[in-house]
Design a protein that fits this description.
Elements lengths: L14 H8 L2 H7 L9 E2 L2 E7 L4 H17 L3 E5 L8 H11 L5 E5 L3 H4 L9 H5 L10 H6 L1 E2 L2 E2 L2 E4 L4 E5 H7 L10 H11 L9 E4 L4 H4 L3 H6 L3 E3 L6 E2 L3 H14 L3 E4 L5 H8 L5 E4 L4 H6 L4 E4 L10 E2 L3 E5 L4 H14 L2 H11 L6 H4 L2 H8 L4 H6 L4 E2 L7 H16 L5 H16 L4
Parallel strand pairs: 2-3, 2-4, 9-12, 15-17
Antiparallel strand pairs: 1-2, 4-16, 5-6, 7-16, 8-13, 8-14, 10-11
Helix pairs in contact: 3-16, 12-21, 20-21
Length: 439
């Protein structure tokens, strides 16, 4: 896939989540069904075309919300369409922008927004979100940061998550290893993974995606940030993890040397999660979207925040977005009305509960419906609490190339084909070259 400036796309942080949603052939077929034509006005009613890209339960959730909006807003008719899953949305939107026939709203991965926002057809939603009934500062910092490009709000937050560690309590008991607690370190994680590993039984301490995509990469950023690094240096012309990235990769290399890490060879991390669900992995670094599958598999589990090097709490969030496109005054205004409505707590809480997201704002978190959901789902509160310290990847047009270069480095270290220092040098050469290209 390519973003509008021709650079390759990095998949969003929750690529494993979207892959899990997309694995149903039935859902794909239903999503591809022909939808009524959208756009324009009829009898004073404005029609808005929405490309949501959701499948399975998330598709049902968003389309139920659309139906409710249409009932409550007789002057606006939102029509779901596009026939494409979220993983292919960037390619679809890019082609649509090039042809001049684009939707009014599209679900865009957070890692793709900066490239999409290069198009003048992408609306500036700064005033739209400021004027909403929920104060902009009430949204979690990660949700705000993910939609802000050069100081302007270029999309509405659509989905929020975070990473933590889910532990299989049965495997911990069998290995005689105490369950980890908040404040643990990456050295602890490495040691625990080694102790949990039982090669004769085919049990791994942990897992890591091994194809070099964004699901491989985003797990390393909290380690880099905790060590004082950043994705992009403050000068904007070089990476900000030339040194800290090496140290983070040394932790990855140690897991590989200990043979305590299951390396998933396929995109989407589905095999890695199946190993955990089958009771053959002690710890999975994952997000809240995985909890329903874990509960269905009847895994006795424990959720703990990510380890760190410093002891300070830190995680990453991979928000996705609703981008609004300018199709003229009436349609633009109607699209803005819909996304503003969709992000309000009363709608957000239904989306969060039904589709497996975290609350976009503190107001949503405070609603009785979310409190009930959180109380009834062991470990869910841990994911929500981590939003206080969650960071997001930079909304930058060169992020795709940086991610691709780092993904290659991580895989080479996981497979024992390169040292952390050598892998990071190659990564820096490729990523720095992308950063010097004028944007």
């Amino acid at each position: 896939m390519e973003v509008p400036d021709g650079t390759p796309s990095a998949r969003s942080a929750p690529s494993a989540r979207s892959a899990r949603r997309a694995r149903s052939a039935h859902a794909r077929a239903a999503l591809a069904a022909t939808c009524p034509a959208a756009g324009g006005e009829s009898g004073g009613r404005v029609t808005v075309e929405l490309w949501h890209g959701q499948t399975d339960t998330a598709r049902t959730a968003i389309e139920a919300l659309v139906d409710r909006f249409n009932r409550e807003h007789p002057d606006i008719r939102v029509v779901p369409g596009a026939g494409v899953v979220a993983d292919a949305m960037l390619q679809k939107v890019t082609a649509a922008l090039a042809s001049g026939a684009y939707p009014d709203i599209a679900y865009i991965f957070g890692s793709d927004l900066a490239g999409v926002a290069l198009s003048p057809q992408v609306a500036n939603l700064t005033d739209t979100m400021d004027e909403g009934p929920t104060p902009w500062k009430n949204y979690w910092p990660a949700a705000r940061a993910a939609v802000t490009v050069k100081g302007q709000v270029r999309a509405a937050p659509a989905l929020l998550d975070s990473l933590a560690v889910v532990c299989n309590k049965k495997l911990f008991r069998e290995a005689g290893v105490p369950l980890p607690e908040p404040g643990w370190r990456w050295r602890d994680f490495q040691d625990v993974a080694k102790r949990l590993t039982d090669r004769e039984r085919g049990v791994f301490g942990t897992g890591w995606p091994g194809v070099g995509d964004e699901d491989t990469v985003w797990r390393l950023w909290p380690m880099v940030w905790d060590l004082g690094g950043d994705v992009i240096h403050e000068d904007g012309r070089s990476i900000g993890f030339a040194d800290t990235g090496v140290r983070a990769l040394e932790t990855v290399a140690a897991l590989a040397r200990d043979k305590s890490v299951y390396i998933d060879p396929k995109p989407g991390s589905d095999q890695m999660y199946q190993v955990f669900l089958s009771g053959r992995m002690g710890m999975a670094v994952t997000g809240p979207w995985q909890l329903p599958d874990i509960q269905q598999a009847k895994v006795d589990y424990h959720v703990v925040p990510l380890p760190s090097y410093s002891g300070r709490p830190l995680t990453i969030s991979g928000p996705d977005t609703w981008a609004v496109f300018d199709n003229g005054g009436a349609r633009l205004k109607a699209a803005q009305t819909f996304v503003r409505w969709l992000t309000q707590p009363e709608q957000d809480v239904r989306w969060d509960i039904d589709a497996g997201s975290l609350p976009l704002s503190r107001r949503t978190e405070a609603l009785p419906a979310w409190r009930k959901k959180s109380a009834g789902t062991p470990g869910l509160r841990t994911f929500t609490d981590t939003l206080e310290t969650a960071r997001v990847r930079p909304v930058h047009p060169a992020y795709a190339q940086i991610s691709a270069a780092l993904g290659e480095a991580i895989v080479s270290v996981l497979l024992g084909k390169s040292t952390p220092a050598a892998a990071l040098r190659r990564c820096a050469d490729q990523a720095n070259a992308a950063l010097i290209i004028p944007r």
